[in-house]
Design brief:
Layout: E1 3-7, H1 12-23, E2 27-32, H2 41-45, E3 53-56, H3 62-72, E4 76-79, H4 86-91, H5 93-114, E5 119-125, H6 148-167, E6 170-176, E7 179-180, H7 189-201, E8 208-210, E9 216-217, E10 220-221, H8 222-233, E11 241-243, E12 249-250, H9 251-261, E13 270-272, H10 290-296, H11 304-323
Parallel strand pairs: 1-2, 1-4, 2-3, 4-5, 5-6, 6-11, 7-10, 8-13
Antiparallel strand pairs: 9-12
Helix pairs in contact: 1-8, 3-5, 5-6, 7-9, 7-11, 9-11
Length: 350
């Protein structure tokens, strides 16, 4: 039986890769940040929370990195933990650099000493391309980060390459383009849209404030992308791969399809809020997954339209169940920004 250590297991990708690896017979250790109320709803949603061996982990404490490696003795390490929201990185640039950048160095350096034979996956990001130099973006496309988050991810990306070449570690990075699902956090624009569309349909809110809706992204389905992570660690030699669909769509298109799915017109509800615009914007990202298709045998199956439908329908179903009195593992009711005023047609037993 192989053992995997997943940092950031409570996030979208962490939860999906955990489910994937458990299905393959792995023993799974997952790290989480010690807080007053741990966020395990995704693992509960997938029905796997009782199958995970949990370990607390502080990304900026190298002794913590040593401890989790000694406890898990992993064959594979999936480093998914980070300050992962681009918008927040402008507000917390130093913390983002320490957590998302330097934190990776502390983990991979600990691996060099404690687990040199383990295989290491680093979650790189398409945001590193930033002000794009070529369209589409492939593994050799020059990087031009446009946020503290992207700069921190780029540092982590290069330190992974450096440790691979300097110490012969099996260390690779997946340059994943945007990948979404019903487990996406509410702070990300896709889930913000799908959740708001469902709430507007049910009369729970009227407006949706957004920033730049002209930005284009290469959006895929997260459960498919975690399989690519695993495939990278099954190769004979470590290499970096772009994981993407090869097509991009604007935020406006995501809006149109989301609201149309529920018989709504987004123009009746969306307002542009300048406070939500980034200081430096990434206008378009479009990945070239040719290498992954050829060498990993990986390609996406869920289309953009199907992705939108999956997310919108799941959020609508959640809110309808919630309004009828059902309680289940979910993030939205715990978000203080939602003022839930129940429409008269719902009888709620609280």
């Amino acid at each position: 039986m192989k053992t995997a250590l997943i940092t950031g297991i409570t996030g979208q990708d962490g939860a999906y890769i955990a489910k994937f690896l458990l299905a393959k017979g792995y023993k799974v250790y997952g790290t989480y940040r010690r807080v007053s109320t741990p966020n395990f709803w995704r693992l509960q949603n997938l029905g796997i929370i009782d199958k995970i061996n949990f370990i607390t982990y502080d990304l900026i404490d190298q002794s913590s990195a040593i401890r989790i490696l000694q406890e898990a003795t992993p064959d594979e390490v999936y480093n998914l933990a980070a300050q992962s929201f681009v918008g927040a990185s402008f507000e917390q640039p130093i913390a983002t650099g320490e957590i998302t950048g330097i934190g990776v160095t502390k983990l991979i350096d600990a691996m060099k000493a404690i687990s040199p034979d383990a295989k290491f996956y680093q979650a790189s990001s398409s945001e590193m391309f930033g002000l794009v130099q070529n369209i589409p973006q492939a593994e050799k496309t020059p990087f031009y980060p446009r946020s503290p988050y992207a700069a921190a991810k780029l540092y982590a990306h290069w330190i992974t390459i450096n440790y691979r070449e300097a110490y012969q570690l099996f260390a690779c990075s997946g340059i994943l383009f945007n990948h979404e699902s019903p487990l996406r956090g509410l702070e990300f624009v896709t889930r913000k849209i799908s959740n708001a569309a469902a709430r507007i349909k049910l009369g729970l809110q009227k407006e949706l404030p957004l920033g730049n809706i002209e930005a284009k992204r290469d959006w895929g389905y997260a459960p498919e992308y975690v399989e690519a992570m695993w495939k990278m660690l099954q190769q004979d030699s470590p290499q970096d791969y772009v994981i993407a669909t090869g097509e991009n769509h604007s935020v406006k298109e995501f809006l149109e399809l989301s609201f149309k799915e529920l018989g709504l017109n987004y123009q009746d509800h969306v307002i542009i809020d300048k406070k939500l615009l980034r200081p430096t914007e990434v206008e378009t990202l479009l990945g070239d997954p040719s290498k992954a298709r050829k060498e990993l045998g990986w390609k996406p199956k869920v289309s953009f339209k199907e992705l939108v439908r999956i997310m919108v329908r799941e959020d609508l179903d959640r809110w309808e169940r919630y309004l009828k009195g059902e309680r289940f593992a979910w993030d939205a009711p715990n978000d203080v920004s939602w003022d839930v005023k129940v429409p008269k047609e719902y009888k709620v037993d609280r």
